[in-house]
Amino acid sequence: MVSPNTPTATDAAASSATIIPDVVIRLAGNSQDGIQAVGGFLARLAGRSDQEVMTYMTIPSTISGGPSIFQVRMGSGEILSSGDRADVLVAFYQHSYESHRSSLRPGGVLLYDSDHVTPNPDDKAVTAVGVPMTSATVEAVGGSTKEKGKNIYVLGLIARMFDLDVPKLSQLIKERFGGKNEDIVRNALLAFDAGYAYPAENLRSCLYRLEKSPVANARTQVTGDGNTILAYGLLAAGVRYGSGYPITPWSSIMETLRTELPKYGGIFVQAEDEIAACSTALGFAYGGHLSVTGSSGPGLSLKMEALGWATMAEIPLIVINVQRGGPSTGLPTNIEQSDLLQAIYGSHGDTPRVVLAPKNVEDCFYIALEAARIAREYSTPVLILTDQAIATRIEAFDEPDLAKLMVQVKPDLHPRAPDFKPYPLDGPTRPAPPGAVMTSGKYPTVTGLEHDELGHPTANPGLHTKMTEKRREKIKSVAASFPAPELAGDESGDVLLVGWGCTYGPIREAVNRLRAAGVKAAHLQMRHMHPLAPGLEQTFNRYKQVLVIEINDEGLYGYGQLATLLRARFCNPAITSITKTDGLTYKVSEIVERVAKKIGLADTTIGTRKQSILAVTPR
Questions:
Q1: pLDDT tens digits along 479-496
Q2: Peptide bond connecting 21 to the previous residue in cis, omega within 30 degrees of 0
Q3: Dihedral sign for Cα atoms in the order 206, 212, 214, 218
Q4: What range does the domain containing 452 cover?
Q5: Average pLDDT of span 73-102
Q6: How many other C-beta atoms lie within 10 A of the C-beta of residue 410?
Q7: Cβ distance 469 to 519 under 8 Å?
Q8: Count of structural domains within the chain
Q9: 330 in the Ramachandran plot: left (φ > 0), alpha (ψ -120 to 50) or beta?
């Protein structure tokens, strides 16, 4: 066996590697094969090497597992999507090859396990390299582990193909398995070494080296998935208490908080159901602590009654919904953005609330800070709509300045003046937590019933009207604190593409290609979903067409959920929809083609221009 640090005769072959700016690698196998671990190693290596990275994964929704993929795109320069087509397809099984051969671009590399895969010998459009991954892993590791290290063997192969930083990868392997039995770490490194030692002569036609970033990053990079980064954003925002119930794909946030909150003097409670989880979180909030609960779409439906109480009682609370395909159990491990109207209007009665949506993994951290600010300042529930794609994909970004951003908050127990009213009609709501002394001797009430300025229940018609107005105007005033959404591209022109959530990167890349083909286009990504940020109407009016791109159904009236909301608000007929419900994220080429059709570039009379657009779609 050859150590990766030992020079060999094959180094001469490696020295002829082709320099490339970035690469898209798709690993296809079964969920039990650990391909997510391999993708995670590659993504974290990119993060530690001042490179951009973005991943994409699919996992089966059944307990027994099944076919799964992990795609990683990494390299120098800005990476906005995980890539439409793969440069390298690693096929573990025959079904992996047959299902994903079409994802490999012409001229790409098919790296397959020759113990399990027989590719089409007549397929000359790609370079096929067969490696006995299973038997080579068994030979390298031996013992009772059999082929369990095959994923790490493949990681070694990829490291050889792309001349990756072996010491850093070895350290990542040690960190990943360091808490386990020493034999596991040793076997993992043996498998990695064996894969890396695969003769470079056999890979001569597919040896590459990634360009180094032009400027080394002055700040440390963080690499993580959206759920993890959102959980750490909550910690930085001062959230110390929470409650939840397991459901895919929210559960990993709950598990991170359950582990981390006690380190900061807090606690996370796993409740017996979704209603109890929301009510428990409200109990923490009633005690003066900003708290969090969360779920996915089905769980949010169950939380709605308690959320209605939070709106009436004006209690600060953060609620996370990691969206997935619906309705009912739906598509537990697939992406959909179909909970927007539920988040805004889900409860009975008039229940105005704030809804935010992060645009990528990095933004998960900052959206948590924003949600905490609004919840505290306006004493209101705030919903964060993230989604399965952002939740599970990995990105690298600059480490936040924690010294400036960390918030430490304790319950405000100072004595209240004789004229204190928690729900004044002429001022902001300021509930007093239990333990705060009322110098007047009159203690307020917190209830789900309509109430007066002290919280005491009332059925007075005039007071109900005034309190309803107060709750409405409070949420309207939140909008004044929002910055105008960022606009990228032409300040006016043919088309404005509007998105939210995980559509950010593909839309931005699509706009770049549309503009390169001569279309006057721009991109606006919404983070503040409700209430709407100021300045949108003036921005929309500067474009001939406003296309809202989202992953939900066009509905009974032909418009997606965000498009329906924007049309109702602005009465602008230029606002129309591009939607889909296949459970997958948008490809850049998919957006470009559908936009071209919408704005008339698919007409045969302007076929030349259409061709120029499609020609610059990414691989």
A1: 999 998 989 999 999 999
A2: no
A3: positive
A4: 413-481
A5: 94
A6: 9
A7: no
A8: 4
A9: left
